[in-house]
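Honest question from a wet-lab person: if I give you the sequences of every part of a complex, can you actually get the arrangement of the whole thing, not just the pieces? Trying it with mine:
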Amino acid sequence: MLPDSRRLHLHDGPIDLIVEAFGDAAEVRAAYRAASIRFETVLDELCGELTLLRRPSGESRDREIATGIIAQRMCAAVEPYAAKIFITPMAAVAGAVAEEILISMTQASKLARAYVNNGGDIAIHLANGEQFTVGMATLPNAATYQPLESLRAISVSCENAFGTATIHHRHSIRGIATSGWRGRSFSLGIADSVTVLAETASMADAAATVIANAVDLPGHSAIRRVRACDLAPDTDLGERLVTQSVEKLAHNDIHRALAGGCRVAESLRASKLIDSAALTLQGQTQIVGGQLSPHAHEIPSSPMISAQRMLVHA
Amino acid sequence: MPDDAIRCDACPVLCYIKPGRTGACDRYANDAGQLIRLDPHVVLERAVSRGDDVVPFLEKAREWDGTLLAGGDTFVTAIGAGTTYPDYKPAPFIISSEVAGVDMVTVVTEGIFSYCGVKLKIDTDRHLGAECSTVRAAGEAIGHVTTNEYGSQMLSLGGVRHLTGGSRHEGVATCDALLNLCNRKAVELKIDDGATVVVQADKPPVVDGIQEERMRVGCGSATIGMFAKQWFGKVDEVVVVDDHITGVLSEHQAGKLLGVPETGIKLKGRRSTPGRYFRVAEPGTSWGGTNIDDPLSILSTFDPKAARPGMRLLMVSTTGEHHAYFELDDQLHPKERQLPEPLRESVARIRENCEPALCTVLFMGGAGGSLRAGVTENPVKLTHSVRDALTRVTCGGAPVYVWPGGGITIMADVSRMPENAFGYVPTPALVAPIEFTLKLSDYAALGGYMDHVRPLSSIQEDKDKDKDKDKNKNKDGLRRIGARPDNPWPLPSEKSAK
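Yes, you can. This is the full assembly:
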């Protein structure tokens, strides 16, 4: 438990989960016990199939089928993209782990609400009539960017968030994920962050990766890219160039890069792979979906992502 | 696979890590071909085991010279030990060693303290701010002024209400200030409607840009009490100027007992008891923590019934920093004269008796929560064991004071801990080392993780073995530093205790 005696912290190797359940105290205890027990074997299960999971989705499908439940969920989450683009099941690993732990909790006990946050990829549970408000926080700007600061940026509080989304149980959203080049994993794109709301955490995770990769300005001189394998020999991205730094961009470049990401997001939304997405690049944010309208007074049927700081394009 | 990458075996992911990069966890890294844990694990060694009487802290830091770590002379601290999550997993290091023939176990972990803060003692009489005034760092409220202790101003900083109870900016600024103070770095604090003070553990405070040199020897009244006999016969009247209580020799009980005659002196301010005056001036940063530069400004006209021309008057501050000597002229007006030699000695004596002004940082935190589960499956038994003094708690080898009552609420002097002993997590909360040491048999009795107990030498052996297998392995990343002889841990072995 974290010292606040409310949240459970589960950590094993690179997996770091913050878990919180709401409901009857005995039910919450049972849920935490279930999460802890389920968590014990998660890393081993994944590592057992790591080679398979690092292989591009299209390639491995015919030859081998993942055996672990989390691995299967990862494969399923990236499957819709496999035909068109390069993607490996690892793009959905964080969301899939969060989802699995959440399921272990909701199967073990009756909870009003719960979330499992795996480094920003979040699986949520909402009982009838319940809702969550999720904040999106800004990363510090590039000039003051330090590892220390980036760690702090992860601790989000609503007042500092540039946007919030309220997710009600009637929405078909149970997953939230964020991807971007500043995060812990590599990105092919230049988005500072892409936050996605989707049906499940693994779907959100895969989609956030795909959209963040699509926010890009190929060949632009302000972007420094390095072969992924030069940074991490065992990466699933091989020799693909990953973003290492992005200098200050002109306003129309920012707009162009975001527009590219928005086009992909719109198509994913049309294919029901995501509910909505918020794309941020150098202080500019664009929203896709969520029936967003800054002046809307009626209750939207889909959660509203409100962005207070920037121009909004629906 | 490029041959400059190394394989990390800290977890089953088995990352290949290039030089200068971290693994997927951000906790293990490749440092020029060496696999390192990012916070090196600190081992304190008893200095005396090397035949030295006193070894200055950290001066003997050195590379491993091939000798095995042995017995009670070495104590493993929690610094860099890492944490285990979930907490029901045994703590990262549970280590046995033999001290004076008794098998001891030390359970070592780094605790994440959301409930923690710093009690800061600043040796100065200068007015820093009114009680309850907000103390700020980087513009954020991080604590408050509590009270004056004898010669010192006390601040309470941090605590859960600033760390996680306020805004995120407040929490981050608080965490930052606490981390720096605990790691013995300088921090600038601004007190609302008060002073700006730069504080650093074991260093003099700097109040509004002026470095404090000495603590006062006592309040003005106490100074009269201490030095009355030495002044008797050498001077007719002494006024010790102090913002709290200004003392007057002839009226003070100490003077009365010696038979010092009345001098007709009249002080401004409010008389408390004979020879003791409150508020002769406003608080400030001059004479005795008041705002006066001219000591005569606190005197009214002498009473001609008792005063006589030629009477000798010494005025001095509680640190001896300020002093002046006067003789009354025929109109009974004090005229400044050169300080006679015998009085010069007594002023020097006041100064000699003043201790150097320092800032003292005590870390305070609650360890009564879930980290106990890393020590034993029965957490409350650890609390009881600490309470019954069967288990010794230390922070980075430094002694702690365990507050009476429930829980394990501890205080430790950060200046007795190794450098950079503290870290933080983005909650925000501080990460502090904590070690529980107890007899092996007691450890078994309280439900300890007996199958996780490992001998002290195994920490070194791991490294040794890994070296044979692969020169790149240094998983435990030991940093050996000299222990402070005045700390309770490590316990001296019988051989070196002589």
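Two things worth pointing out. Chain A touches chain B at residues 1-5, 8-14, 36, 39, 43-44, 47, 50, 151-152, 154-157, 159-160, 184, 230-234 (CB under 8 Å). The first helix of chain A runs from residue 25 to 39.
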